[in-house]
């Protein structure tokens, strides 16, 4: 390496020629092409197809397409299917995100100590990273399914029906599996945030006579707030995309009370349902877009914090 | 790459004890308070692990006796749930397919991401910012959104029930490109300049300097990509129609739950499905943690 450094000082000039520029550009094209081909074929082209397909209504058998302009969009986006699907997806967010945030922070704060063997606890808390949505769903079949569940009762105050059989509680029951599956990720992210706080800051607060509770709310929480924001966005997007738990635990039922947007889209693969499915997909895109945009704005703000 | 755990300059969140400022003893925890923390940590561990405990109990319980007395301990212990799940779900074949699909997706994602990241980090070309924006825009188009037209593409290509259909749509990753580009940008410019003067080509520099110097980042992305691919559900569920001969392990699991009254079988299947990723998690925990927290905490 040192010989390279010596040569660097050896007076040779790096010449930027036109042919050099051209060659560099060609190499760039070659390096970017594999990714770009995939992105065009499986991200942008299908999205364009989606938007276009929404402009065409199909007949009852799906064999014939008729151009209707934005009529189908306004019909579906103001209709009951989109409204119900969106409402169920939003409920899923409401069930999973605050609890995920709370448990993730609780676990991380508890395990962020200088204790002998604390790493064992950290490994346990992060363990659900290993579970797939499918495995987590089977785990919750074992816990709350009306036939094989460890607990086969209902949610207190919502009647005697089993959690997953009661239209008023089924979605909450399904969301439990997502909450548990995301514990590991939430824990790991919040713990990373806690460990990024310089020890001096907390010690200074202690020397200033801050008790543990005041220290947590005045020092720790504000300092990890960017990390918590990040976690919120991740959990919201996960919640909007949840599919396996619904299929495993309820199949969309009872009384279609667990049909989220993604579930409704999945059910519309047949040619005669594609028009509606396309509009629902564009609707899901809109929701995802807003959430992701919020993430970029928040991250932008974080940069201004000087971190 | 993935088999290499000895990495230089590796920072590990879980292994990283809070730094003790010089000249001052860090906050000491007294024995009573320590006992209190252990109690709390044990209680929380119990909460996190309880679902897994019940999974094991039900996997070895006789379905007909499971509710005769206590649900807390296995009833009428029998182990044939595992062998039945293995046979009925064709789990051997499913595990092989899952592994093939996962290795292919991971290998392709890492390769395409490294190449693209190199172009963004080290090469000058027109419209660079725009192309980068195009890459990042794919993060706004998750598979859930583009599912229906992508399935139409699969139909047109005849890629249902095929390895191409399961793998090719995931051959590139904006997240990986972003992560590895960040790693590349951390390489001092002097090194690039020096090798350029030596007459090294871009490919040589990429293979002999850029990749080795960013091994921790690439390793993190590799493991994250591996877990993501192995645990995938929605896409294989849509693209596989013949679940017996094409099902990945996650899809095979879905098949097993159709006869839920024989509870020990699907539950044992879930235990089997979880094993490969548990092994990966144990072996590569620190890479996973670094990769997962890459977007959350800088540095």
Polypeptide structure, described:
The complex is a heterodimer of chains A (307) and B (299). Chain A has twelve helices and two strands; from the N terminus they run H-H-E-E-H-H-H-H-H-H-H-H-H-H. By secondary structure, chain A is an all-alpha fold. A two-stranded antiparallel ribbon of chain A has the order 1-2. In chain A, helix 2 (18-53) packs across helix 12 (274-304) and helix 4 crosses helix 7. The longest helix of chain A is centred in the first third of the chain and has 36 residues, at 18-53. Chain A is globular and about 75 Å long. Mean pLDDT of chain A is 88; it is low at 1-14 and 303-307. Chain B is mainly alpha-helical and 299 residues long. Chain B has two domains: 29-78, no CATH class; 81-292, MetI-like (MetI-like fold), CATH 1.10.3720. Chain B is built from 14 helices and no strands. Chain B is globular, with a radius of gyration of 24 Å. Chain B starts with 30 loop residues before the first helix and ends in a 7-residue tail after the last helix. The chains are: A mainly alpha (307), B mainly alpha (299). Chains A and B meet through helix 1, helix 2, helix 4, helix 5 and helix 6 of A and helix 1, helix 3, helix 4, helix 5 and helix 8 of B.
What does the secondary structure layout of this molecule look like, with pairings?
The complex is a heterodimer of chains A (307) and B (299).
Chain A: H1 2-8, H2 18-53, E1 56-58, E2 65-67, H3 71-77, H4 80-111, H5 118-125, H6 133-144, H7 170-195, H8 199-207, H9 212-241, H10 244-249, H11 261-266, H12 274-304
Antiparallel strand pairs in A: 1-2
Helix pairs in contact in A: 2-12, 3-12, 4-7, 4-9, 6-7, 7-9, 8-9, 9-12
Chain B: H1 31-59, H2 80-88, H3 91-122, H4 128-137, H5 143-157, H6 163-167, H7 174-185, H8 189-197, H9 202-213, H10 215-231, H11 234-239, H12 243-246, H13 249-256, H14 264-292
Helix pairs in contact in B: 1-14, 2-14, 3-7, 3-10, 3-13, 7-10, 10-14, 13-14
């Amino acid at each position: 390496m040192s010989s390279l450094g010596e040569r660097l000082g050896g007076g040779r000039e790096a010449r930027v020629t036109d042919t050099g520029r051209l060659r560099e550009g060609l190499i760039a094209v070659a390096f970017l092409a594999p990714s770009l081909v995939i992105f065009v074929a499986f991200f942008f082209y299908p999205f364009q197809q989606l938007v276009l397909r929404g402009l065409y209504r199909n007949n009852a058998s799906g064999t014939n397409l008729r151009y209707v302009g934005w009529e189908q969009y306004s019909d579906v986006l103001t209709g009951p299917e989109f409204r119900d699907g969106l409402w169920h997806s939003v409920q899923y967010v409401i069930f999973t995100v605050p609890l995920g945030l709370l448990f993730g922070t609780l676990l991380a704060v508890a395990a962020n100590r200088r204790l002998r063997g604390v790493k064992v606890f950290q490994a346990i808390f992060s363990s659900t990273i290993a579970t797939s949505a499918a495995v987590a769903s089977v785990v919750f079949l074992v816990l709350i399914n009306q036939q094989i569940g460890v607990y086969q009762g209902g949610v207190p105050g919502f009647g005697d029906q089993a959690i997953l059989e009661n239209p008023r509680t089924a979605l909450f029951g399904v969301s439990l599996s997502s909450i548990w599956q995301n514990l590991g990720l939430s824990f790991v992210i919040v713990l990373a945030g806690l460990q990024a706080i310089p020890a001096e800051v907390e010690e200074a607060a202690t020397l200033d006579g801050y008790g543990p509770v005041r220290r947590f709310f005045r020092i720790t929480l504000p300092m990890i707030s960017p990390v918590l924001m990040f976690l919120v966005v991740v959990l919201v997007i996960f919640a909007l995309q949840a599919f396996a738990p619904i299929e495993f635990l309820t199949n969309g039922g009872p009384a279609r009370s667990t049909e989220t947007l993604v579930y409704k889209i999945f059910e519309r693969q047949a040619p005669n349902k594609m028009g509606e499915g396309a509009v629902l997909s564009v609707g899901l895109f809109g929701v995802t877009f807003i959430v992701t945009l919020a993430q970029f704005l928040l991250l932008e703000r974080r940069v201004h914090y000087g971190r | 790459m993935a088999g290499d755990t000895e990495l230089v300059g590796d920072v590990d969140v879980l292994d990283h004890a809070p730094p003790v400022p010089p000249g001052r003893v860090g906050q000491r925890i007294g024995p009573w308070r320590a006992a209190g923390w252990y109690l709390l940590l044990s209680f929380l561990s119990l909460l996190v692990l309880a679902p897994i405990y019940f999974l094991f109990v039900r996997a070895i319980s006789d379905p007909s006796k499971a509710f005769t007395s206590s649900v807390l301990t296995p009833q009428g212990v029998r182990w044939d749930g595992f062998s039945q799940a293995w046979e009925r779900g064709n789990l051997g074949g499913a595990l092989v397919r899952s592994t093939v699909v996962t290795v292919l997706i991971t290998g392709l994602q890492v390769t395409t991401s490294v190449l693209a990241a190199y172009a963004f980090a080290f090469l000058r070309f027109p419209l660079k910012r725009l192309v980068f924006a195009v890459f990042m825009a794919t993060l706004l188009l998750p598979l859930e959104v583009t599912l229906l037209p992508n399935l139409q593409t699969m139909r047109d290509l005849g890629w249902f029930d095929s390895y191409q259909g399961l793998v090719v749509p995931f051959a590139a990753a904006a997240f990986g490109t972003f992560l590895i580009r960040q790693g590349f940008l951390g390489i001092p410019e002097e090194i690039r300049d020096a090798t350029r003067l030596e007459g090294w080509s871009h490919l040589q520099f990429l293979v002999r300097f850029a990749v080795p110097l960013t091994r921790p980042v690439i390793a993190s992305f590799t493991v994250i990509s591996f877990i993501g691919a192995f645990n995938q559900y929605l896409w294989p569920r849509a693209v596989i129609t013949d679940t017996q001969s094409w099902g990945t392990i996650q899809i095979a699991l879905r098949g097993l739950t159709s006869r839920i009254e024989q509870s020990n079988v699907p539950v044992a299947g879930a235990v089997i499905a979880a094993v490969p990723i548990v092994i990966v998690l144990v072996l590569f925990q620190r890479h996973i943690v670094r990769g997962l927290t890459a977007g959350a905490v800088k540095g």
